[in-house]
Write a structure and sequence with these properties.
single chain, alpha/beta
C-alpha cells in the first residue's frame, strides 16, 4: 500500500511539474543518464556514445551518472525512485532488467511495475578471453583445466547476476564443471584484473575488451556469435556448444509513469541517433548491433527473455550470494 501511495505521489508531482507543453518540448533541461556500472564497460561505452549523439541532436545535455555496485541494483533503484518526468533515464545491461528479478528475490521494487521500456538500444556478442600468456587456447582447454582442478580456475565478472557471470554459469551447466567466481564492480575492473594476471579468464561483452584483444593484451577463445571484427575467432557452436544464447544488451529505461509522449519521443530520437552515419560507424567498430524496436515491442520481448532466465535460475538453484 505504501509503495502504491508513493508511486502516485511521485507521478502527481511529475505531472504537476511537466505540463503538456513541457512534455512536447522535451527536453528543456539537462537529462540525467544513470549507468549502473563503472566506467569502461560496454554499458558505459554505449551510454556515452548515445548521450553525446542525443545531446547534439536535441541541443540539450545528457549527463552520465555512473552508479556501480549491487549487480546493477544500486543504479537501477535510483531510477526507480526518480520523478517520472523524462529527466532521469537508465542505460542498463540486460542483467539488471532481465536476470536480477529472478536472482534477487527481495528487491524493494518490481522491474516490470516500476520501470518503463524506452528503447532496446543495442546488443553485442560476448567473448571468452584469457591473458595472452595463458596456456588455454580454446573452450576445450578451459573445460579440461576445470575438470582437473574443480573450482580452481578463476574467472572475473561484472558482478553477481550479470550476463558476464551468468554466461559462465551456463557453460558450467553445459560442460558439467565448476569455476571459481571473482566478482568485480563492472567489466572494466574485471578486464584490468585479467590483464594484470589476477584471474584466469572472463566472459565479456565485446565492446569492453575488443581494443585489448586487438592490442594483444588479451586473447579471445570463443565468441557467442561470429563477428567480422574478430573473424579468426571460433564461435561457441564451433567449440561444441550450440545454442549458447548469451549476449550483452544495453537498453534504455525510464521510471514507470513517465509520460507516454516523452517515451515515444525518446525512442524515436534514440533510433534516429543510431541510424546516423557517424553513430552507425562507431557502433560497428565496437561490435554493437542496433535494435530498432518500439518501446512496446521491446517491452514484450523483455517479458519473454525474463521468463527464459528465470527458468535457468530455478533449474540451477542460483541465488544472489553465489
Amino acid at each position: 500500500m505504501m509503495r502504491t501511495i508513493r508511486a502516485c505521489l511521485v507521478l502527481a508531482a511529475a505531472l504537476a511539474w511537466a505540463p503538456a507543453g513541457a512534455q512536447e518540448n522535451w527536453p528543456v533541461r539537462p537529462v540525467r543518464v544513470v549507468v549502473p556500472s563503472s566506467p569502461g564497460g560496454g554499458t558505459d561505452i554505449y551510454a556515452r556514445l548515445l548521450a553525446a549523439s542525443l545531446g547534439e541532436s536535441l541541443t540539450q545535455q545528457f549527463v552520465i551518472d555512473n552508479r556501480p555496485g549491487g549487480a546493477g541494483n544500486i543504479g537501477t533503484e535510483i531510477v526507480v525512485r526518480a520523478v517520472p518526468d523524462g529527466y532521469t533515464l537508465l542505460v542498463s545491461s540486460s542483467a539488471s532488467v532481465i536476470i536480477n528479478p529472478a536472482l534477487f528475490r527481495n528487491l524493494p521494487w518490481n522491474v516490470e511495475r516500476d520501470l518503463a521500456p524506452v528503447s532496446a538500444g543495442v546488443r553485442s556478442p560476448m567473448v571468452f578471453c584469457v591473458h595472452p600468456s595463458s596456456p588455454m587456447r580454446s573452450i576445450a582447454d578451459l573445460v579440461n583445466a576445470a575438470n582437473k582442478e574443480p573450482e580452481a580456475v578463476s574467472y572475473g565478472s561484472a558482478g553477481i547476476g550479470t550476463t558476464t557471470s551468468m554466461g559462465v554459469r551456463m557453460l558450467e551447466e553445459r560442460a558439467g564443471v565448476k569455476f571459481l567466481h571473482v566478482p568485480y564492480k563492472g567489466v572494466g575492473p574485471a578486464s584490468q584484473a585479467l590483464i594484470g594476471g589476477q584471474i584466469q579468464f572472463m566472459l565479456s561483452d565485446l565492446p569492453a575488451v575488443i581494443s585489448h584483444i586487438k592490442a594483444g593484451k588479451l586473447r579471445a577463445l570463443a565468441l557467442t556469435d561470429r563477428m567480422p571484427q574478430l573473424s579468426g575467432v571460433s564461435t561457441m557452436e564451433e567449440s561444441g556448444y550450440p545454442n549458447f544464447e548469451v549476449a550483452a544488451a544495453f537498453s534504455v529505461m525510464a521510471p514507470a509513469g513517465t509520460p507516454a509522449s516523452i517515451i515515444r519521443k525518446a525512442n524515436a530520437e534514440i533510433v534516429r541517433a543510431m541510424k546516423s552515419p557517424a553513430m552507425a560507424q562507431k557502433l560497428e567498430a565496437l561490435a554493437l548491433i542496433p535494435v530498432f524496436e518500439t518501446a512496446e515491442e521491446y517491452g514484450a520481448r523483455l517479458t519473454r527473455v525474463r521468463a527464459m532466465w528465470a527458468d535457468f535460475v530455478r533449474r540451477n538453484r542460483i541465488t544472489a550470494d553465489q
